[in-house]
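Residues determine shape. Take a concrete instance:
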Amino acid sequence: MPTPASEPLDAVLDLARDARDVVVLTGAGMSVESGIPTFRDAHTGLWERHDPEELATIDAWERDPDFVWAWYRWRAKLIRDVQPNVGHRALADWADAERANLWIVTQNIDDLHERAGSSVLAHLHGSIFALRCSECDTPFDEADDAALALPSDPVERLAPPRCPVCGAAVRPGVVWFGEELPQEPFAHAEAALERADLVLSVGTSGVVQPAAGLPYRALTRGVPVVEINPAETELRRRRDARLACARRRRAARARLGTPG
């Protein structure tokens, strides 16, 4: 039964205390409070005349890899300049408390969950820091190239490093428009949802497929799904509870026993 709108926090706390296997699905809203610009907000200055959905494609990469690489390195710089927020730290604290198994499945390409101390089960859309060869897919460690520094200011063009195996250009480890999601992370997410007795959907619009369908896998099993989002989403018709008010988050953390 849906929780009455006047009592969502108590209902969520009860669910959290009783849960033993928790999956947390996070989207862009999870990182916005850290100050990371959204996909489109990062598309300013040198890149404001370009459609980000056209730039984040394999066609754009093949047409002008230096231009695409420069944009992604600038986005990586923006991420490195911010810190995990209280939401990221709350999830890490929850896992450390060992009250439950907690698996994080994120659509975000940043590393804020990891920097907060969480272990991420799946980056569904890849990671901006998980560099790999554009041809042979060999992983590339930034530490292998001392000259691979993030730009202090946005620049229009940067030459990507070369793969030490085949010599092709190294690309960001993100999923571009028109590319399929990596199978292994999605399989991990599906397996975790089969075990979960509670699912949290945090800061995701619920419109990007196939990630948007994940909460419904839990709902079909009768597993409660809690949405934490200031905006209305399609999930509202079937969720068990909803937290829309950001000011309640600190109170929730305190009552769960996690430090501020």
